[in-house]
Amino acid sequence: MRALIIGAGRIGMHLIRYLSSSDDNRLTVIEKKQERCKEASTNSDATILNADGSKPDVLKLAEASQADIVIVTTDDDRVNLAATRQAKKEFGVPRIIAVANSPKNKERLREAGADMVICPAELALKDLENMLERDRAVTLMYRSELDLRVAETVIPLNATLIGKKIHEIQMPEKCRVALVCRDSSYVFPEPELELKSGDKVLLLGDAPSVARTVELLRSSETA
Known about the structure:
Elements: E1 2-6, H1 10-20, E2 26-31, H2 34-43, E3 47-50, H3 56-61, E4 69-72, H4 77-90, E5 96-99, H5 106-112, E6 116-118, H6 120-132, E7 138-143, E8 148-154, E9 175-182, E10 185-187, E11 200-205, H7 207-218
Parallel strand pairs: 1-2, 1-4, 2-3, 4-5, 5-6
Antiparallel strand pairs: 7-8, 8-11, 9-10, 9-11
C-alpha cells in the first residue's frame, strides 16, 4: 500500500511507526517542522519531505496521485482542510482520513473530500464522560453532527420503574430503548417487556434525551 502522511506530530508519528513496520507499505511523510522530520526519519523507513503538505506542488512531489491513502494529521485545521481538498480534487486520492482538531471543522473536512474524519477532542470528551458517569451510563457512540448518542446503563436494585412495562415509561420523545441484555442474553424490547434490576439497557437518541432517560431508568425512591 502506498500511504502519504501529512503532519508528523503526536498522531502522525504514531501512524508513521505503525505503517513503516510493514514491508508491504510504501510510506511518504510531509512535515513542515525540521525537528519532526528528523524524528520521523530516525523512526521509520519512509521518504520524508520537509515542506507544507497543503501546497499542490509539494503533493505532486510526494506523488499524491499514486497514493492509495492520504492521512492528514497536522495540528492546524486550515492546513488539514487545504491538504484534504487538494488531495481529493486535484490528485484523486481514493481514500483520505483527516484529523479535525476542532469539532466544528468535522463537517468542513468531509465537504473538502475526507472519507473519514477523526476528532481527538471528541474522543477525549467521550472517555472523560465515561469516567465521570461510569456508575450511571457508558457512552458507546457519539456523533456530534447528528447529535446522536448511544449509551448503556444498568437498572439498579432500587429503581422505581422495576416491574413496569416499557410502554408505561414516559421517556423523552427522541430516545428509544434499542436492546435489553439480561441473564447472559439479550432481547429486543417489545412494549410489554418488563424491566428488571440488573438489566443492561441500550439507549439511542439525541444526547439530552438519552441523559434524561438514564436518570429516569436509574431513579429510586428517596426516604
